[in-house]
Amino acid sequence: MIGSGILKGMAVTARNFVGSYFEKDRLITVQYPEERNPLPENYRNFPFLIYDGDDPHAGLRCVACKICEKECPPQCIYIVKSDDKKPDYMGKPQLYPKVFDIDISVCMSCQICVEVCPFEAIKMDKEFELSKRERFNHLLQRKEELSKSNDYYHKICPTDAAEVDAKLAEAAAKKKPAPAPSAPTPVSAAVS
């Protein structure tokens, strides 16, 4: 029959229209930006750098190994290593990135930089309102803008952040030397 596809489509539209009056979870209009839908925990948009403690420079987990820069498919990450070392969040002297830039006009949010980072220093953010009025330098996120605290990461991804912290604590415990066992007392001295 000619037009049967149109009739089926109109039936689906009518069913959804009538159903929207009886089911409250269907076809809801969100009044953005006053109202916002909650984002799922595994939502990813744009990478950011994590730092521990209160100082973004001293607590930055990134040691400028440049693995993320090499693995980035669109080559939007630019890192320059520092000439000197600073103590990291565990007190060990480490190199740090003097320059860490990400071009948001090129980044495709693939999360490969997060997967290859051996120091859990780069994660994906949920912030999606990144538009700027200007181009060129304004589309380049610098280290200062990318650095966010571990508390912020716990806020946006609580389960993932807890797993990462547990893994880092376990690795730090393995690196600490075990306490030296106390010398056993000789048997002859204990008997007399």
List the helices and strands and how they pair.
Layout: H1 4-22, E1 46-51, H2 67-71, E2 77-81, E3 86-87, E4 93-94, E5 97-103, H3 112-116, E6 122-125, E7 140-141, H4 143-146, E8 147-149, H5 150-156, H6 158-175, H7 187-191
Parallel strand pairs: 1-8
Antiparallel strand pairs: 1-6, 2-5, 3-4, 5-7
Helix pairs in contact: 5-6
Question: What's the short story on this structure?
Answer:
Helix content is 33%, strand content 16%. With 192 residues, it is of the alpha+beta class.
Shape: elongated
CATH arch. level architecture of the domain at 46-172: 2-Layer Sandwich
- Distance from N terminus to C terminus (CA atoms, Å) equals 110 Å
Strand ordering within the main sheet: 6-1-8
CATH class (first level) name of the domain at 46-172: Alpha Beta
Helices and strands, in order, run as HEHEEEEHEEHEHHH
Average pLDDT taken over every residue: 86
What CATH calls the topology of the domain at 46-172 is Alpha-Beta Plaits
Q: What is the β-strand count?
A: 8
The main sheet comes to: 3 strands, mixed
The radius of gyration computed from the alpha-carbon positions, rounded to a whole number of angstroms, is: 26 Å
Unreliable spans are none
Strand content: 15-25%
Helix content range of the residues, please? Answer: 25-40%
Structural class by helix and strand composition: alpha+beta
Question: How would you describe this structure to a colleague?
Answer:
This protein is α+β, with helices and mostly antiparallel strands and 192 residues long. It has a domain at 46-172: Alpha-Beta Plaits. It is built from seven helices and eight strands; from the N terminus they run αβαββββαββαβααα. The protein has helices at 4-22, 67-71, 112-116, 143-146, 150-156, 158-175, 187-191; strands spanning 46-51, 77-81, 86-87, 93-94, 97-103, 122-125, 140-141, 147-149. Strands 6-1-8 form a three-stranded mixed sheet. Strand 3 and strand 4 form a beta hairpin. Helix 5 (150-156) packs across helix 6 (158-175). The termini are far apart. The model has no long low-confidence stretch (mean pLDDT 86).
